[in-house]
TrEMBL record:
This is Type IV pilus modification protein PilV. The chain crosses the membrane at residues 12-34. Keywords: Membrane, Transmembrane, Transmembrane helix. The keyword Membrane applies.
């Protein structure tokens, strides 16, 4: 008696293969997107760390020259056309200053302004060299000590915005991560980032 056997094994159809390829492609594209985003976030974190270092440097300079505190403000409007020359060194020697205490009732000391101008020039150079297209916008707020309260010092606050070129021009991924100062006149849609720091001396 002849017995017919049937082979129960069968191959995948073309449609099944195509569906598997599509699913695999979607998964791979998703992983590629996550990798790209992670790289951008890592670079932004690195810029943030550089920004913290720059702000700490400027803060220490201002703290060492409290007499010239108001001169640590830098409120020039942002100029996108100057970014290509941002690495040029504007550092200049300290301006000659005068100290005359021969008249205690009216002492003369112009060194605080000269030192502040020199510190600011050096610091802006560091910002331009360490951040891509880097510049800054700084306000120096001074609140006098309350009258009649002994031992209460004046309050000095530096508001520092570090302004730098976006990681990828035109992508919009990191544009305007933090609000930029309105007075800096940064056009809407400009590929720059602003990092804001408020420091009380």
């Amino acid at each position: 008696m002849n017995m017919k056997t049937h082979n129960t094994q069968r191959g995948a159809t073309l449609i099944e293969v195509l569906v598997a390829i599509v699913i695999l492609a979607v998964a791979l594209f998703g992983m590629a997107g996550l990798t790209s985003s992670a790289a951008k976030y890592n670079q932004f974190s690195r810029m943030r760390a550089i920004g913290l270092s720059l702000v700490a440097d400027y803060t220490e300079r201002a703290r060492a020259n409290l007499a010239g505190f108001s001169n640590y403000a830098y409120t020039d409007a942002y100029n996108a056309s100057s970014r290509s020359t941002a690495t040029s060194d504007p550092t200049r020697a300290p301006v000659a200053c005068q100290v005359d205490t021969s008249n205690p009732a009216a002492p003369v000391n112009t060194c605080d302004t000269a030192i502040a101008d020199y510190d600011k020039s050096q610091w802006l150079t560091n910002v331009a060299n360490r951040l891509p297209g880097g510049t800054a916008y700084v306000t120096a707020d001074l609140t006098p000590a309350t009258a009649g309260v002994n031992g209460l010092p004046a309050t000095r606050v530096l508001n520092i915005w570090l302004i730098w070129t976006a990681i990828e021009e035109g992508t919009g991924f990191f544009q305007q991560q933090q609000p930029c100062p309105v007075a800096a006149n940064i056009a809407t849609g400009t590929s720059v980032n602003c990092m804001y720091f408020r420091v009380t001396l």
